[in-house]
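cache lookup: miss for this entity combination. No prior model stored, computing from scratch. Input as submitted by user K.M.:
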Amino acid sequence: MSEKSDKTEQQRLSVFKTYKLYVGGKFPRSESGRVYDVTDSKGKWLANAPLSSRKDARDAVVAARKAFGGWSGATAYNRGQVLYRVAEMLEGRREQFVREVADAEGLSKAKATVLVDATIDRWVWYAGWTDKIAQVVGGGNPVAGPFFNLSSPEPTGVVTVLAPQESSFLGLVSVLAPVIATGNTAVVIASEKSPLPALSLGEVLATSDVPGGVVNVLSGRTAEIATPLAAHQDVNAIDLAGADDVLAKELEIAAADNLKRVLRPQPVGEVDWSTTPGLDRMTAFLETKTVWHPTGALGASGSSY
Amino acid sequence: MPTTAPATHSLGEVTASDSTLRRFLHGLPGVDTVGLEARAASLGTRSIKTTAKAYAIDLAISMVDLTTLEGADTPGKVRALGAKAVHPDPTDRATPSTAAVCVYPDMVPAAKEAVAGSSVKVASVATAFPAGRAALDVKLADVRDAVDAGADEIDMVIDRGAFLAGKYMKVYDEIVAVREASGAARLKVIFETGELSTYDNIRRASWLGMLAGADFIKTSTGKVAVNATPANTLLMLEAVRDFRAQTGVQVGVKPAGGIRTSKDAIKFLVLVNETAGADWLDNHWFRFGASSLLNDLLMQRQKLATGRYSGPDYVTVD
């Protein structure tokens, strides 16, 4: 140590964070070994993020498929508890997310705080819906015959989510939470320009009882990762929230091959993530199973009961 | 790394008595564990892409012994398996057939019927598979049953207890007896490498099996924790290479159990090519004992054909 540094207050070496993907409950680097610069709204370097390849996408789908049985089979009540736990963990990391969102979107600390709070509330809101959605969109149907006729919503399967490009955290959670709340598993492509909140969300999910593979977060060029995912035969649905018009059209064509459910993007100017979302994003990735249950032959008394 | 047997031996005399056999097997050079594993790992890093990958996938499909060895096997399941072996991907008739189906002896008639008229062989496990804990005449009766039912290949297990106790001659005599009982069927000898504890033992077992007249040496039954690994397969490939150099007799190798992905299968093919040589890159000399591997190979094949990643919805559930 030089005498000079003894006099001045000692400068700590920066501890830079290595942002990694979140796939199958683990934090791998991109299979390709590539990274790209992530900058804040003014162009200042923030961190390197992994630049995922189509093989990372493939691995993520394998992980999501593997997790689907357990997650969709868990009770809705249990899923709600797990998602609420995520909100608790987010609350604990509030400061970090405020900083990351402020950097990513060029907001003041106060505005970023409002956004992060809204995001955590959004997560809680969806956590509450897990065991209520079935009553709202399912139920008994009156049919003309001696049957109980019941409809219940079932998750679609593996859903690819293109997170919104502009709203790096509130937008992300607003499209991700409804997908997993109903029992789907997700492969999320983070905002290309500001992926850091999404990658940090992976760390939150890893520490909050969400089984590995239920959410898989990829960062990189949206078009590069989304194209193989849209054509992937083992992906059941795709949410195009983060695609521009040209890309969305291309992906929708690729998705037609195995009849994926496609949720088209809303025009960029018209999206307001802060409003109450309604059920649309949940029902978009639900299928309805209807069961006809015979009540038995009607006896002379009019009923076999 | 010298892996051949001491040249002073004439292999004919080796099996003259228990003591000469023991002297020979214990005279085989010790295995360099670190070197073997490093070699197997480094060969696993080869990048096989595009046309080479397409060739490797088709070759691997043609090498699969599609296996079902469950207590719950039914004739219906075996028929389904046979149909899959003949046309692994019904949507693409250019897909090669697998090498064989591998079943328990009582399922051989059902399997024969299912693959009739195709190139697919029927292999049957025998000799009190998988433990091999039965008297010799029971084992031989098991083998004759399978052969009479029309099995083209017999997969026998060695008596690991006798082998580990050092009774090499007993193991040798048993293989010779099974060899005779098999008649025209090709004989695969399973060592259950996961139970032999050391690489030295695997090398000894390989030579013992080959001396006794095995047509194939096979790693495992698929019923224990450790099955085929790149390292133990590499070791066996070295043994068949050296055996042919010394005797002129070519013996096949069959890793079985635990090979589930195309990537793994291609690694094994690299091992074959780099160790034994291209002569073994044929389903007459190299097989994969597997069941779920075939689905992954088919998915990879579909990916290469269409450019889209395939999924488990597009192959059969076995």
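stored under new cache key. The longest strand of chain B covers residues 121-125.
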